[in-house]
């Protein structure tokens, strides 16, 4: 029987969970949810920023005609849920919601998914701001999981490559503005991007989700702390010419 017809719990990722799930899962599939749009309106001082210099990460904002594309993952054990609870709720300030997921593969029926969402009452809520200000903030912040630029660009790349039909103007405009800031300030993109998706599981997960195929659960590889690496360098060392 299709696992979507079982009692499995599925989680919908629309932010870093798309390119770095970080937990063991069974099947995964690309698709979308309705009535929400993705916005970089949640602040972050634990992964992609610090208390004194919080970064900005994605959340979902209700919009009657909106839709957000991402990936649904089938959870296979208690450990995954408690990992997500720590990462998204305790550290990220998100709360949970359950919505209907529509798989890209039209032969699959819609099914319920759990998702993590921030609202104006969430801890770290940053809210709306002009896109050029959000882009500047993202360009200037990093935290224990890596630079805020990495978060944005890996998500934009994932959407462009794996979900081309899910064009997201907010995400695409931010990507353009951030790439412009990087150029204007002569920052080193390679240093900002850290080790990211070279992680075998993240890459395999992205490929599997895009192809709508079942992936065997893998032991999670330790993610290298790119923050520790980059903060040991004086800021000017992030400039390409000095690396
Ligand atoms: C998600 O990816 O679905 C939640 C937001 C995040 O952790 O980036």
UniProtKB/TrEMBL annotation:
<comment type="similarity">
    <text>Belongs to the gamma-glutamylcyclotransferase family. ChaC subfamily.</text>
</comment>
<dbReference type="InterPro" id="IPR013024">
    <property type="entry name" value="GGCT-like"/>
</dbReference>
<dbReference type="Pfam" id="PF04752">
    <property type="entry name" value="ChaC"/>
</dbReference>
<dbReference type="InterPro" id="IPR006840">
    <property type="entry name" value="ChaC"/>
</dbReference>
<dbReference type="InterPro" id="IPR036568">
    <property type="entry name" value="GGCT-like_sf"/>
</dbReference>
<protein>
    <recommendedName>
        <fullName>glutathione-specific gamma-glutamylcyclotransferase</fullName>
        <ecNumber>4.3.2.7</ecNumber>
    </recommendedName>
</protein>
<keyword id="KW-0456">Lyase</keyword>
<dbReference type="GO" id="GO:0006751">
    <property type="term" value="P:glutathione catabolic process"/>
</dbReference>
<dbReference type="GO" id="GO:0061928">
    <property type="term" value="F:glutathione specific gamma-glutamylcyclotransferase activity"/>
</dbReference>
<dbReference type="GO" id="GO:0005737">
    <property type="term" value="C:cytoplasm"/>
</dbReference>
């Amino acid at each position: 029987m299709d696992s979507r017809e079982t009692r499995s719990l599925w989680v919908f990722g629309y932010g870093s969970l798309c390119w770095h799930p970080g937990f063991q899962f069974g099947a995964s599939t690309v698709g979308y949810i309705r009535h929400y749009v993705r916005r970089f309106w949640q602040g972050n001082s634990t992964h992609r920023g610090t208390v004194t210099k919080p970064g900005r990460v994605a959340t979902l904002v209700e919009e009657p005609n909106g839709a957000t594309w991402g990936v649904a993952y089938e959870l296979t054990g208690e450990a995954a849920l408690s990992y997500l609870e720590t990462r998204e709720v305790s550290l990220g300030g998100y709360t949970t919601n359950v919505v209907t997921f529509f798989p890209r593969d039209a032969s699959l029926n819609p099914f319920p998914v759990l998702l993590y969402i921030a609202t104006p009452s969430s801890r770290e809520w940053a809210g709306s701001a002009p896109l050029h200000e959000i882009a500047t903030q993202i360009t200037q912040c990093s935290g224990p999981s890596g630079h805020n630029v990495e978060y944005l660009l890996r998500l934009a790349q994932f959407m462009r490559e794996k979900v081309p039909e899910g064009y997201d103007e907010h995400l695409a405009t931010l990507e353009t503005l951030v790439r412009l800031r990087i150029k204007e300030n002569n920052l080193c993109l390679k240093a900002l991007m850290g080790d990211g998706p070279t992680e075998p599981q993240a890459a395999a997960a992205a490929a599997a989700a895009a192809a709508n195929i079942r992936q065997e659960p893998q032991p999670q590889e330790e993610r290298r702390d790119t923050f520790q690496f980059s903060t040991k360098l004086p800021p000017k060392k992030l400039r390409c010419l000095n690396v």
